[in-house]
Amino acid sequence: MTNCTPFFVWLGAISGSPLRDTLQEDVLTGRIIGGHEADPHSWKWQVSLQIAYPDYPGYYSHICGGTLITGKWVMTAAHCFKGSTYRVVLGEHDLLQEDGFLVKSLLPVPHFSYDIALLRLSSPAYDNGFVELGLLPSEGDILPNDYPCYITGWGATSGNVPDRLQEVMMPIVDHKICSQDDWWGSQAKVTMICAGGDGVRAGCSGDSGGPLNCYKDGHWQVHGIVSFGLVPYCNTYKKPTVFTRVSAYVDWIRNVSCLVPAR
Prior knowledge:
16 strands, Thrombin, subunit H, hydrolase
């Protein structure tokens, strides 16, 4: 990859499909860098958003992460959607084993001012012992610099594409730092959260839409949605992973999920 030039991209990429061998030629087809396998079913609100392939009838492949926030709604990144057919896998750990269950999805409701979408499920999720709802933070809640949070997702690590959910702790980088010129500069908006940037730990392509999990007030809350980073060198120093800040959209999330019927 010596001829590659780092560039700013959304972190949505396909992994775990019949196209895996081809995609791995791109080196970073989806990874949490510097992390390790999560304990099975320790992040019960994590979902796998999967896309159908026209050339492989009946086959779906993981493309993005997401968070189950009600029995009928999944929160993810708006840029994950390209007008194809999707399904959601709930309660999963190993994508090669059927220990979770599938729910077909309906059209997403994106928020056009930034990278967040709500996905309606065609049938309600239910608790099979492996599924819980992700809790949202309070409206406008801002975490302090160095606050420890976890990013979770499926994807490549050290050149491989594991099928088991990965996790890594990444400290918050507050907006004042992340928006400095030698960090993300003006690309870091107040409606975003930055985390990582130590040159070791990072989210990368394929982790898009997944949660930034932060323990606060006695329980886990989902404070971020994986949005973008520097590719192909996602763990570049002073280029932390950037998330949509959920607390900036709590009112919109509640309005949409309550007012739009999920049938």
